Amino acid sequence: MSPAVARLKEEFRKGLITAVFFSVGFAVIMVHNRLLTEGTGFKPESFVMALVGGLIAGKVLVSVDMLPFVDAFPHKPMIYNIGWKTSLYVAAALVFLYIDPFVKHLVKGAGLYASHSQAWHELMLPRTWATVIWVVVLMFIFVTVKEMSRVVGKDQLKSMFFGRRDTPAQIRQRDAA
């Protein structure tokens, strides 16, 4: 396999894992928003939007990871990188939360100032900030597990969470004892 294909395959795998994690997380946020707004007349997003949001988050995080200053603290304790990367990812999410309604209003024919005003208004809503708090928690969990994987290794992390997978020879040896 050529190095370019191997790199593309690895980036796709990272993006897919990230997209699945955030799709599930956004679905939980969506259920939370539905429970909070039940009976108010407000209609939160659908599960499809949670899936699309997870795919977008996966792409945004893979893109942010390509920036040269993302791994700013490789030889410091993990908390430095966790705090730094969580801050970067949350900043990217906030930019997206502003740009999304801005572009929607711009496409509908509103001018730049009107689109900015509407986007800013939507960003300042309490329900948006409740969602941002959830996103910060998701980002923190995601970055913490990602950094643990980087420090202790992917295989060791799998072993820590799911136990060791014995080979058939090891199972026979254990059963014989």
Helices and strands in order:
Blueprint: H1 3-37, H2 47-65, H3 78-107, H4 112-123, H5 126-152, H6 154-162, H7 168-176
Helix pairs in contact: 1-2, 1-5, 2-3, 3-4, 3-5, 5-6
Description:
This protein is mainly alpha-helical. It has 2 domains: 1-63; 71-163, no CATH class. Helix content is 80%, strand content 0%. The chain is built from 7 helices and no strands. The chain has helices spanning 3-37, 47-65, 78-107, 112-123, 126-152, 154-162, 168-176. Helix 3 (78-107) crosses helix 4 (112-123), helix 3 (78-107) packs across helix 5 (126-152) and helix 5 crosses helix 6 (154-162). The longest helix is centred in the first third of the chain and has 35 residues, at 3-37. The chain starts with a helix and ends with a helix. The model has no long low-confidence stretch (mean pLDDT 83).
Could you tell me the mean pLDDT? 83
Number of domains: 2
Number of strand segments: 0
Cα separation of the termini: 42 Å
Taking pLDDT < 50 over at least 5 consecutive residues as the criterion, the unreliable ranges are: none
Specify the number of helices.
Answer: 7
The computed structural class is mainly alpha
Rg from alpha-carbon coordinates: 21 Å
The level of helicity is: over 70%
β-strand amount: under 5%
So what's the overall shape? Answer: elongated
